[in-house]
Amino acid sequence: MFSAIARIFRTPDLRTKILFTLAIIALFRLGSFIPAPFVNFTGLQKCLDSISGDQGSLYDLVNLFSGGALLKLSIFALGIMPYITASIIVQLLRVVIPHFDTLYKEGQAGQAKLTQYTRYLTIGLGLLQSTTLITVANSGALFGTTDATCSGDSILALPPQPFVYFAMGLMVISMTAGTGLIMWMGELITERGIGNGMSLLIFTSIASRFIPSMQQVYTQGGPNGVELVIGVVIVGLAILVAVIFVEQSQRRIPVQYAKRMVGRRTYGGNNTYIPIKVNMAGVVPVIFASSLLYLPALVAQFSQSSTGNNPAWVEWINNNLTRGDNPIYMAVYFLLIVGFTYFYVAITFNPDEVADNMKKYGGFIPGIRAGRPTAEYLDYVLTRVTLPGSLYLGLVALIPLIALALINADQNFPFGGTSILIMVGVGLETVKQIDSQLQQRHYEGLLR
Questions:
Q1: Which pLDDT belongs to residue 377?
Q2: What is the pLDDT of residue 180?
Q3: Residue 17: closest CA among 165, 194, 230
Q4: Strand 265-267, strand 260-262: pairing
Q5: Helix pair angle (225-248, 372-407), 10° resolution
Q6: pLDDT at residue 446 in the model
Q7: What is the C-alpha separation between 139 and 165, in angstroms, rounded?
Q8: Which segments in the chain show pLDDT lower than 50?
Q9: Where are the alpha helices (DSSP H) in 273-348?
Q10: What DSSP character marks residue 156?
């Protein structure tokens, strides 16, 4: 292992790519600590200290993806979340708008246009989300508390009228520009670094929350804090091994290609397989479910009465759909993840298209006729493989909520949910990228 790492840094091209990637990541983390204009940094720190360990904010997922920059109101407050949302929207629009599907099938030129659409949509979402964030922060509702130290006047140093809207506009422009800069950094890592730029930035943001999360676990443990931290680390390592095992699991459907003559040359005649992963949807269903559960809480928040006499449905949502340690919240969250897993897999993997491509090039599954029977067989296998994958996603996503109920750890619990899925997925893909580049220059890869 150490000799493989030494070979990495003895290879000039690969060493340059890794050092360039590390430099971009360092700049990304630096921007997370630079506050946006007109932010009262001292007052914001007092607010964060007062709610430490007892945060009920609705922005936990975005705060996780931004590495804690959201609640610090930095220039990188929105993190990579607008780009993730834009990418998912563009991908879903392929099903609704035929033009997007046509561009997807055009190859590199069509993919470049879709990427450009994703960039424009990212900037638009950045404008929308930064405006919402600053408006909510100015109203004092960002941290979900009535503490006076977290009021709008305490965390923002806005000038008096009529310059207040100019100041808020400058904050919106700064945060939107930060979103565009993050997007550019991710693309630089993809082009000039070791690849997977956006994924690596997400990985960095989540990994940066590990030490604060463990500190919170230690604080919540009181006199038994050290034992609790050791127990959490042991359980976390077991979860990590299980997640890696499932993420690498796949059902391989054998495919044979018939020999065919083109001129004097013979093509085909080889055997391959179609890999169907147990978790084909990745972390997207968890993001979908979190976003959908966010909507009722948001509606209830804006429907609350100033006198305290809230409607019955508002009270029910506040009691059951805003706290992760509630059994109803857990059950709804789990069912949404299972449903969205089937939905997303159905969008991203089209058995009819795969069957048509196999038939076009003379491929067939042994014992299955080409064409429609092949598509039905692929759909049959996909449906049954997706079931354990969806249950696995739901159980992993519930780990932070169970930790919240048992030890009062927050939604950013380091071993579970969105964080562990992304870290494992990005880590495995990055190792494969480095390994493949090592094998191009040496006979041995990163791992033997």
A1: 92
A2: 93
A3: 194
A4: antiparallel
A5: 180
A6: 58
A7: 14
A8: 53-58, 411
A9: 284-302, 312-320, 327-348
A10: B
| pLDDT at residue 23, rounded to an integer | 94
Find, among 52, 40, 225, the residue nearest to 137 by Cα: 40
Asked if 261 contacts 439 with a C-beta cutoff of 8 angstroms, the reply is no
Fill in the amino acid letter for 273. Answer: Y
364-371, long-range: CB < 8 A, 24+ apart: 364/255, 364/256, 364/258, 365/253, 365/254, 365/255, 365/256, 366/254, 366/256
| Token pair listed for 144 | 């979900």
Question: Max Cα separation, the chain?
Answer: 86
Helix (H, G, I), strand (E, B) or coil at 179: helix
Which residue segments constitute the domains of the chain, with CATH numbers given? 12-208 (1.10.3370.10), 223-415 (1.10.3370.10)
Here the tokens at position 38 are 């007109």
Residue reference for tokens 């404008």:
127
Give me the pLDDT at residue 145, please: 60
Task: Report d(CA 370, CA 385) in Å as an integer.
Answer: 22
- Residue 276 has phi, psi (to 5 degrees) of -110, 105
| Single-letter amino acid, residue 355 | A
Q: Is the pTM of this model over 0.85?
A: no
CA-wise closest residue to 56 among 318, 333, 399: 318
If you ran DSSP here, which 8-state letter would residue 39 be given?
Answer: B
Element (H, E) at 363: strand 363-364
